[in-house]
Amino acid sequence: MGPNAAANRADVIESICNFIRPTLLIEDPPLKDNVTLKFIHIPKVAGSTIEELGQKYGFGWGRYDKTRLVSHVESPRCWGTQGYHGIPSGVKDPSVRTFCVIRDPYERMVSEIRFELTFRVWRTVQCPSPRMLNELIIEQMKRPLQARIFPCHWIAQYRFIQHCDHVLRMEHLADDLRTLGSHYGTDLQLSGIHSMNDAAKLGDNCEMNTSMFTNETKALLEREYRIDAELVKLLDDKVIGNKDRLALSDKIAELEHLYGQK
């Protein structure tokens, strides 16, 4: 898909999202110490799962959050107004505590390709071969971030994590959510992970995973996401306040300097 076609498709998606985007203001349940708990949505990291879980327990998170207690920057955009998909600006209400979820950055990119192949497509899609999977990733990685089909989905996770008081792990999501809920005196029981149901379009036997990556793909991904990969290794079961406990902001600054990323 060329840049012009991607832009046109993004405009259509924005119109759809504006139509279906929730408009009701949800008042979150009271939590211990009068804390307001907000979710920082990192694209392609269980965001829809967390948002729907919040709805189950009465929280307005992510696309359901109309409070604007956490502000977000508007670039790079996926489409239209960035809103909850944006990187937090660092400005939030003093009563707010935030959490987010991080995952293996290379598995995240496989998920992104599945998403791009099937999102808003109403027909069966050919399952990509390992060669095609690599070509799709390389094509996107060689573009500037804003020129990719869904730019916000390709933002490195560490740029969000600096604004999360509690950083949960996707590989241990149910356990970490229970720990988070218990800390604030509420119940957060996850029964399953949200699925795009892309198997209906790609086929039940469509296999895509990181073992298919070529050396070129690995090198491109590592160059952009190695800080994310380092952060995943640092996290442990103690997720409450782990941004400060593990000094993640300082670690990110060190890695940015080491790798020349900013």
What do these coordinates show?
- The chain is mostly helical.
- It is 42% helix and 9% strand.
- It has ten helices and five strands; from the N terminus they run αβαβββαααβααααα.
- The strands form two sheets. A three-stranded parallel beta sheet has the order 1-4-5. Strands 2-3 form a two-stranded antiparallel sheet.
- The radius of gyration is 18 Å and the shape is globular.
- It starts with a helix and ends with a helix.
- The model is unreliable at 10-23 (pLDDT under 50).
Instruction: Please provide the ordered H/E string of secondary-structure elements.
Output: HEHEEEHHHEHHHHH
What is the overall shape? Answer: globular
Mean residue pLDDT: 86
Strand order of the largest sheet: 1-4-5
**In terms of per-residue confidence, which ranges show pLDDT below 50 for 5 or more consecutive residues?**
10-23
How much of the sequence lies in strands comes to 5-15%
Biggest sheet details: 3 strands, parallel
Rg calculated over all Cα atoms: 18 Å
User: What kind of oligomer do you see?
Assistant: single chain
Distance between the termini: 28 Å
Count of helical segments? 10
Structural class: mainly alpha
Count of extended strands: 5
- Percent of residues in helices comes to 40-55%
